[in-house]
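Annotated sample (chain length 213).
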Amino acid sequence: MMSRLSKIILIAVFAAASSFILPPSSFAQSGAIKGKVRSNKGDGIANASVTARQSGKDIKTVRSNAKGDFLLAGLSTGVYSLVFDADGFQSGLLQGVEVKSGDTRSLGDRLVLMPDQGNQVIINGSVFYKEGTSLGGAKIEIERLNPDGTTKKLTTLYTNIQGEFIYKQPQGLSTKLRITAKFKGAEGVKEVEVDTAAIYRLAITLDISRTEK
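Output written by the structure step:
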């Protein structure tokens, strides 16, 4: 028969061993957040920074992959704010993102970044009748003039009721743009050299009277 001392030693050993055996729920005390960072045009943004913030402190930061997808894993349960940004874009903030134990919260493509106008070339144009009044509904064709003399069509726009149009593109190498305005057979052309991020303003007056519309 086991002595009283042997029983005490056996119980102590068992208690010590059991302290290293945690219940399954103890391994699932963290969760994750996944999603996609995209532009306002729907394109995924690569290498965007996504930071989970709680009580004013940055908890964890990851980078999006080539498609804009990201995964913030190993987050304690609780409610977080997500701060996200990328070069050439304004910073974004999404608040009230709840993380539950053992769960991955999917945000889909809710993280949307708008272009930073400080890093954009902006063409702000106006089209007028020959009397000088605004011409709405004029067709605007924008082309890039290549060094070899060829052209590449970039976009087609229409002036609003105030006769205005806006074209934006990321800052890049110095280039020349050709802007053509057309309305009822009348046509006007302006060329503008763009080299840095800025707002470039131009006006085109067409040889057509307001009474001819």
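Annotation: Helices lie at 4-18.
Annotation: The mean pLDDT is 85.
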